[in-house]
Amino acid sequence: MDVAPASLWRKINTRYNLVGNTCKNCNTSYFPQRVVCRNCGRKSKLEERKFSGNGTIFSFTRIMVPPDAFREDAPYTIGLIKLDEGPMVEGHIIDNCAEIKIGGKVKTVFRRMQTEDKEDLIRYQYKFEPL
Amino acid sequence: MGYGVYVPIYRIRVEEIAKVWNEDAEGIKTSLNIVEKSVQDKDEDAATIAVQAARRAVSHAGIDAREIGAVYVGSESHPYAVKPTATIVKEAIGTGNRVMAADLEFACKAGTAGMQMVMGLIDSNMIKYGMTVGSDTAQGRPGDALEYTAGAGGAAFILGKGGSGNIAEILKTVSFTSDTPDFWRKEGASFPSHGGRFTGEPGYFNHTISATKMLFEETGFKPSDFDYAVFHQPNGRFPTNVAKQLGFTSEQIKNGLITPMIGNTYSGASLIGLAATLDVAMPGQKILVTSFGSGAGSDSFAIEVTENIEARRGSLVPVRDIISKNKTYVDYSIYLKHKKAIKKE
After folding, report:
1. Residues A89, A41 within the same domain
2. Contacts of B9 in chain A (CB under 8 A)
3. Which of A97, B157, B187, B254 is the most buried (most CB within 10 A)?
4. Which residues in B have their CB inside 8 Å of a CB on A?
């Protein structure tokens, strides 16, 4: 599974540190970043924002038949996480033996994302850990 | 200024490994003084462990990460042969780009070597704060004695100059280094090789004792001047023996002796031992730390705890809580999967 260097590099800040943006006009936060605020249109005043990484599980599903890049990880859990700052984020929920349930609290951890071929770049990014 | 430790939640017991190789588990537990060891998750490596520890260190230090001017990461298991782990760590803690960064390798002592490098940069006023990390997903050949001890974990320390934020002061550091082929791994080899019993006296004991005695000579300190001592811990037996030979009591080393519960985390081992000792040390107390890295060398430090340490503990989770709470045991087949020794084709 080839990981393109430019694509990986452009998303480092987003993937390592959960950096989105917030509109200073209406205080709406976005992840991933938006160029224009949905509420304010051309009056948008968007500023980069590093989110805390704390959130609540809105929904989740267990993946039993994975795509090739995640073949070593199955079964694994993907969730929709409502961050404390507002945005809804999709991400892996790691198995730390805590119960994964809707409404459960999570925080981000730093992990390898997928299985690469021996000569490929490694993709690191946030995943969510149940608290 | 601050420190952070990260140890994966997975453990494998000595009995589980001994069962595979038809060896005497009780004999191994006694001879190596080890009960179980930590194992990384499938998506963890030396970089992810380093980042988790580094983030905890920044949180504990209570500083703006953009003021960190150097990041050094010591490991024997850097994920890339060419491409630094230190750049991943510095980006994940948000240092900004005006930062010196490099990966270090000196077997199990690269983390303390980084500490000495950061000290030099701070003392010469080149940086305000610097970070050193020791992190490993340690390798041990299946069926080898190392397989019982090679664990996973890491620790990060942030150093700075003076001020009310300091929790401890490094009074002195010295190193004892020689070209001793006791343990090695060549490019492309999956597992390290070692000289068996040769790793003991000419390797670990000679360097650890020599560096510690050198520190005593240059400072005038003696074992009884220290409240605590931390030695590199490739297993639970070596640090106990070396402490005895140097004149330290078992009481002085017990807080920093972590390997029996998590194994040898290689570059992380001495630093995790120091962190566990700082968790309980009180103002004015002194700590001796002597690391050891095969190949071979030892870095010895005399450290004095400041009056700030108690106020700074706050929400810091003690090392012994990190390693004892929320641990999960794996059998040998899952262990192999986590170590990527078996893969789906």
Report:
1. no
2. 96-97
3. B157
4. 9, 41-45, 47-48, 51-52, 55, 79-80, 88, 91-92, 94, 326, 328, 337, 340, 343-344
**Cα end-to-end distance, chain B, whole Å:** 47
Q: Which stretches of chain B drop beneath a pLDDT of 70?
A: none
Q: Give the residue on B whose Cα is nearest the Cα of A92.
A: B43
Task: Show the domain range for B271.
Answer: 168-305
Tell whether B226 and B159 lie within a shared domain.
Answer: no
**CA dist list (Å): B321 to A5, A18, A36, B276:** 39, 28, 46, 10
**Do B139 and B226 belong to one domain?**
no
**A124 vs B48, B326, B337: nearest CB:** B48
Chain B residues touching residue A109 (CB < 8 angstroms): 48, 52
CATH number of the domain bearing residue B161 = 3.40.47.10
Q: SS3 for B11?
A: strand
* Nearest-neighbour CA in chain A from B296: distance (Å): 31
Q: Which of B9, B43, B340 to mutate to test the interface with A (most CBs of A within 10 A)?
A: B43
In a domain, B343, yes or no: no
Exposed (0-12), middle (13-18) or buried (19+): which is B102, by Cβ within 10 Å? middle
A97 in contact with B, Cβ within 8 Å: yes
Question: For residue A7, is it left (φ>0), alpha (ψ between -120 and 50) or beta?
Answer: alpha
Task: Write down the pLDDT at residue A111.
Answer: 97
List pLDDT tens digits, range A79-126: 999 999 999 999 999 988 888 999 999 999 999 998 788 889 999 999
Residues 22-41, chain A: which have Cβ within 8 Å of B? none
A50 Cβ under 8 Å from any chain B Cβ: yes
Query: In the A/B pair of chains, how many CB contacts fall below 8 A?
Result: 51
Q: What's the token pair of residue B183?
A: 């343990």
Confidence of residue A2 (pLDDT cuts 50, 70, 90): low
Q: B103 vs chain A: nearest CA distance in angstroms?
A: 17
Write down the pLDDT at residue A69: 87
CB B128 within 8 A of CB B160: yes
Predicted complex: ipTM over 0.90: yes
Name the percent of chain A lying above pLDDT 90.
82
Helix pair angle (B25-32, B14-21), 10° resolution: 130
Name the residue among A116, A104, A80 with its Cα closest to residue A4.
A116
**Sign of the dihedral through C-alpha A118, A120, A126, A128:** negative
